[in-house]
Amino acid sequence: MVAEASGWSQPPCPTLDAVIPILGGLGAAICWSVSILCSSQSARRIGALSSLAWVMLVGCVFTLPAIALAGPVNPGAREVSLLAVSGITNVVGILFVLTALRSGKVSVVAPITSTEGAIAAVIAVIAGEQLAPGAGLVLGAIVVGVVLAASERHPEAIENARFGPIATALLALAAASCFGINLYVSGLIGQELPLAWSALPARLTGVLLIAIPLILLRRLRLTRAAAPFVLVTGLTEVLGIASFAFGAREGIAIASVISSQFAAIAAVAAVILLRERLARVQVVGVATISVGVAVLSYLTSA
């Protein structure tokens, strides 16, 4: 009151609505970076298939109660088709990521995988949407970043690795393509079904097509060393989706930009915690991807 009377005005305090997208995006970025770091460790201990199966089983435990709370729905043929596509592309994408992480560095695989948003933008353009001004140049920069990130003349030896750096980068790119399709389809699902249903298809598909067959064939593996990693991965995957959805309610653009930085967080953490080393050209590539994904997320969401 004194300030108003004397002609001075205080800058407005940020409201809770303005902070929610930041907190939601940051929470998602942290959850997904932890998820991909833990995924790399479980995949190298029990293999990609068993890791995927356990992650989906754990995810179902946390997702099904949310579905029950969301209330009953009656999806039509279109919704069922979208759910099926979402489930299959997500499971296949995670399988590609786990296979790539078994042979490659987190600091390379994570940034390439994070280009899923760019791929979703391309799919949206193919489907008839207009590309935001400047987005084409950003997409080109991201492609250059992927090529640079995959450039490794003297790859470090990784125990039980099956693929070289180029094949690993292609696996990560295949995962990003699957996730890009999933992102686009999930956007359609979110418009027609309760938000909790966006997390269900992948977990249900993974349990039905991966976990149950492995159990029946007695090929589902789990070691004491891998158990904490699959538990944390399954939990953080679901929490990341929930956190992003929470933030996107008040600001999709901000939540998208901040959550896309899970790759940068994971890359830095891998260098510090896992002692991964990158060539200078790879550092430039990873940085280009991270900045490009953030800019594209803003352009396509604003």
Structural class: mainly alpha
- Low-confidence spans: 1-10
Order of helices and strands: HHHHHHHHHHHHH
- Please count the beta strands (DSSP E, at least 2 residues each): 0
Mean pLDDT, to the nearest integer, reads 81
Q: What's the end-to-end separation, in Å?
A: 36 Å
Helix percentage range: over 70%
Largest sheet: none
Principal-axes shape call: globular
Give the strand content: under 5%
Number of helices: 13
In the residues, how many domains can be counted?
1
Structure characterization notes:
- By secondary structure, the protein is mainly α.
- The chain has one domain (19-152, 164-301).
- The chain is 75% helix and 0% strand.
- The chain is built from 13 helices and no strands.
- Helix 4 packs across helix 9 (200-216).
- Residues 1-10 have low confidence and may be disordered.
